[in-house]
């Protein structure tokens, strides 16, 4: 991440004052507090791609996850894929594993409807808004091997560092979402 995008290089561990914060971002912090999930938070300018997040990972001491919102051709099955940021995504590779041919990026309106997230801010935290489980979570096995992971708090102007174990053992059960482990090679 370019240094001019970093608003404040301080890592915070508490709920921010709500000045200038959206309600959807504040909901994430309140939920993490309710669940007793500690986190580190970094504020920065808007970032919409994993490449733009370079530097955030270093400050947070993590490898940033790439979060992709996908669907089948009929737009009847939706997936949130968490994978290492440096891996290349190959639709065919994932389609085979989940037995869903012709995956593509889901339209923005479904992202907003199901996860209450805009493009560029896709995050596992959005599952807290998917009360009817429209979105299935897929996690690359390498993400699960990391002690910590990084994600946005439903906005792309902040990033969080959470313990992977807290995500899988506290957050996901609370929001009633299971996950499926996938193995992506990400090679040509």
UniProtKB/TrEMBL annotation:
Classification of source organism: Bacteria, Bacillati, Bacillota, Clostridia, Lachnospirales
Residue ranges occupied by any YbaK/aminoacyl-tRNA synthetase-associated domain in the UniProt entry: 44-168
Family: Belongs to the PRORSD1 family.
UniProt name for this protein: Prolyl-tRNA synthetase associated domain-containing protein
InterPro entries linked: ProX/PRXD1, YbaK/aa-tRNA-synt-asso_dom_sf, YbaK/aa-tRNA-synth-assoc-dom
Coiled-coil regions, chain positions: none
Keywords: Aminoacyl-tRNA synthetase, Ligase
GO MF annotation: an example: aminoacyl-tRNA deacylase activity
SUPFAM superfamilies: YbaK/ProRS associated domain (SSF55826)
């Amino acid at each position: 991440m370019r240094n001019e995008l970093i608003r404040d290089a301080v890592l915070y561990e508490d709920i921010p004052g709500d000045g200038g914060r959206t309600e959807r971002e504040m909901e994430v912090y309140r939920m993490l507090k309710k669940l007793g999930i500690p986190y580190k938070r970094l504020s920065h300018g808007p970032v919409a791609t994993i490449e733009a997040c370079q530097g955030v990972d270093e400050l947070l001491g993590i490898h940033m996850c790439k979060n992709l919102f996908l669907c089948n051709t009929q737009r009847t099955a939706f997936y949130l894929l968490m994978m290492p940021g440096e891996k290349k995504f190959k639709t065919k590779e994932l389609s085979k594993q989940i037995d869903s041919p012709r995956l593509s990026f889901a339209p923005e309106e479904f992202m907003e409807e199901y996860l209450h997230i805009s493009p560029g801010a896709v995050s596992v935290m959005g599952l807290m808004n998917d009360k009817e489980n429209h979105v299935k979570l897929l996690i690359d096995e390498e993400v699960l091997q990391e002690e910590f992971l990084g994600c946005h708090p439903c906005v792309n102007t902040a990033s969080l560092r959470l313990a992977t174990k807290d995500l899988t053992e506290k957050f996901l059960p609370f929001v009633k979402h299971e996950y499926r482990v996938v193995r992506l090679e990400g090679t040509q």
